[in-house]
Design a protein that fits this description.
Blueprint (H helix, E strand, L loop, with lengths): L1 E5 L6 H12 L3 E3 H10 L3 H10 L7 H12 L8 E4 L5 H13 L6 E6 L2 H9 L1 E3 L6 E3 L26 H15 L1 H9 L2 E5 L4 H13 L3
Parallel strand pairs: 1-3, 1-4, 2-3, 4-7
Antiparallel strand pairs: 5-6
Helix pairs in contact: 1-9, 2-3, 4-5, 6-7
The structure holds adenosine-5'-diphosphate (ADP) (2 copies) and zinc ion.
The site of one adenosine-5'-diphosphate (ADP) has 21 residues, from helix 1, strand 6 and helix 9.
């Protein structure tokens, strides 16, 4: 099964992606995680990406598309994958369709997690992430079992540099301008499904499981 997760920053894409990837046994591919691990390793890609990410801007398409194209060629993507945070522009969506076409495949579902803007700031400023395994927590809505420590790997949780109020506001503008046109793109392709992301995490996951379960 080939799945895309769509939705504004803070919709819960990363949180749901971890659960989906486990249940449906497909690799979770997060472009944000790929960029962050390159930033940590100070690679040329990381240095380039950082200058955009810290400002809340998108990393240019010509950089991002190549990374995803390489990743999708890996063996673990043969039977499906879950894309989290890609595509984020119409050009990226078109490139993804071309990549799929070349290999005679297609995306099965584009899953939109809807969360109105008034929820987002609190979600983002309370987010704490694991720099080691990418786990995502919230100080109020999804606290770790031991304060400040990742449940999965025990690493010290951090606050992302781009999760400050100012940068989140910029990222929301970028989402509305550049990413939200993908909703009609996938509606027109006939593969858009939608879930209400304001429910509790397990309830959202229940809705998603029903949609994806019907695909199998
Ligand atoms: P995204 O990947 O879409 O930016 P995340 O999965 O990282 O979003 O979630 C953003 C923040 O909101 C995190 O702190 C996460 O713990 C929290 N969160 C995720 N889903 C929910 C939910 N259904 N209700 C409340 N908080 C949530
Ligand atoms: P969130 O889901 O919380 O908005 P991500 O971890 O998906 O955050 O992305 C963090 C940042 O990485 C984005 O704000 C953007 O700068 C960059 N990024 C991630 N994915 C892409 C993409 N597909 N195209 C361009 N930039 C991206
Ligand atoms: Zn961890």
């Amino acid at each position: 099964m080939r799945v895309i997760l769509l939705g504004p920053p803070g919709a819960g894409k990363g949180t749901q992606a971890k659960l989906i990837s486990e249940k449906f046994n497909i690799p979770h591919i997060s472009t944000g995680d790929i960029f962050r691990s390159n930033i940590k390793g100070k690679t040329p890609l990381g240095i380039k990406a950082k200058s955009y990410i810290d400002k809340g801007q998108l990393v240019p398409d010509e950089v991002t598309i190549g990374i995803v194209e390489d990743r999708l060629q890996k063996d673990d993507c043969k039977n499906g994958f879950l894309l989290d945070g890609f595509p984020r522009t119409v050009a990226q969506a078109e490139a993804l369709d071309n990549i799929q076409e070349k290999s005679g495949k297609k995306i099965d579902v584009s899953l939109l997690i809807t969360v109105p803007e008034q929820f987002i700031l609190e979600r983002m400023t309370g987010r704490r992430v694991c720099p080691s395994c990418g786990g995502s927590y919230h100080v109020k809505f999804n606290p770790p079992k031991v304060e400040g420590k990742c449940d999965i790997c025990g690493a010290e949780l951090i606050q992302r540099k781009d999760d400050t109020e100012d940068t989140v506001k910029k990222r929301l503008t970028v989402y509305n301008d550049q990413t939200s046109p993908l909703i009609s793109y996938y509606k027109n392709n006939g593969i858009l499904s939608e879930v209400d992301g304001t429910d509790a995490i397990d309830k959202v996951f229940g809705s998603i499981s029903n949609i994806l379960g019907a695909q199998e």
